[in-house]
């Protein structure tokens, strides 16, 4: 047993090719698998090892960055206003809170390994290691071709899975994040005083973040921002990648996930987060996270053991 617990869950599903045109030989069942691990001593860093064929991730966002390596096949995904394809051996980079999606770009699906470091972890690197680059980075390139870095990421994933040596795990992780940040990261250009339109939209975003379960109308949100409903929908989507109602669903998913992790029943979490019922939560949870709320709860049960 590792002295520093790593919690994991394996999720598998099957789907069969039911085409009636091929009668001589049936296609084998297609299996999808997702293994999640969390390293407590690394700030609860989440690590994913997944193989997907039919999974189609809806547009969603994470509080942390997505840093992944495509091991087989290819993935097509939306990020930063456009669609991108990440082939085998490439690195996927998604900034924290960036809206993105994902599905297979190859007939046989795709497999990849990824981790989700938080902005605070990059800030810690900058402050404690005096990294020669800016603060928490912005990765402008959704797909990066860097063989050396990809191999270093693979070493990190392998070490987090197999080694219990805390010093080794921490050293490799923060070394690769430092290299990633300094080599491919850029600082965001921010204005000292954002224009009034941005401040108005920020009020709406903050409300949806702070009160995800609120049954609020578009008209009420528009009044909060002092703009017309039509202007709000168009401007909000342009600024944050999702229209207000879709952004509200993401906020509700984050709340539901938090409630489930705190031990709430799935049905109670669904209701408290503002979903119509448990099936409504189930549908959006699976599309955004890749597993069901029940599978996530099972993972938490393994975590507590």
From TrEMBL:
Keywords of the record: Activator, DNA-binding, Transcription, Transcription regulation
InterPro entries: AraC-bd, AraC_XylS_family_regulators, Homeodomain-like_sf, HTH-like, HTH_AraC, HTH_AraC-typ_CS
GO molecular function: DNA-binding transcription factor activity; sequence-specific DNA binding
Domain (HTH araC/xylS-type) ranges: 202-299
Pfam families reported for this sequence: AraC_binding, HTH_18
Lineage top rank: taxon: Bacteria
SUPFAM superfamilies listed in its UniProt record: Homeodomain-like, Regulatory protein AraC
Keyword presence, RNA-binding: no
Name of protein: Transcriptional regulator, AraC/XylSfamily
Source species of the chain: Photobacterium profundum (strain SS9)
Lineage: Bacteria, Pseudomonadati, Pseudomonadota, Gammaproteobacteria, Vibrionales
């Amino acid at each position: 047993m590792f002295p520093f617990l790593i919690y994991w869950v394996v999720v598998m599903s099957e789907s069969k090719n039911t085409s009636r045109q091929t009668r001589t030989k049936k296609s084998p069942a297609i299996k999808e698998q997702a293994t999640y691990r969390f390293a407590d001593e690394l700030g609860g860093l989440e690590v994913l090892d997944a193989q997907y064929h039919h999974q189609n991730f809806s547009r969603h966002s994470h509080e942390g960055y997505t840093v992944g390596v495509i091991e087989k096949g290819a993935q097509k995904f939306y990020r930063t206003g456009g669609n991108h394809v990440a082939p085998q051996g490439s690195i996927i980079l998604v900034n924290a809170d960036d809206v993105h999606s994902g599905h297979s770009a190859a007939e046989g699906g795709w497999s990849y390994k990824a981790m989700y470091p938080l902005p605070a972890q990059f800030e810690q690197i900058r402050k404690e290691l005096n990294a020669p680059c800016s603060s928490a980075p912005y990765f402008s390139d959704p797909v990066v071709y860097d063989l050396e870095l990809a191999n270093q990421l693979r070493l990190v994933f392998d070490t987090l899975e197999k080694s219990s040596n805390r010093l080794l795990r921490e050293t490799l992780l923060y070394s690769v994040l430092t290299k990633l940040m300094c080599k491919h990261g850029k600082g965001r250009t921010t204005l000292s005083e954002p224009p009034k339109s941005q401040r108005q939209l920020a009020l709406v975003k903050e409300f949806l973040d702070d009160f995800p379960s609120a049954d609020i109308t578009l008209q009420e949100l528009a009044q909060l921002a002092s703009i017309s409903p039509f202007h709000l929908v168009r401007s909000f989507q342009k600024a944050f990648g999702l229209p207000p109602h879709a952004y509200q669903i993401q906020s509700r998913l984050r709340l539901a996930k938090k409630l489930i992790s705190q031990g709430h029943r799935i049905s109670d979490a669904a209701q408290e987060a503002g979903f119509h019922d448990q099936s409504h939560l189930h549908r959006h949870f699976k599309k955004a996270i890749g597993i069901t709320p029940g599978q996530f709860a099972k993972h938490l049960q393994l975590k507590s053991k």
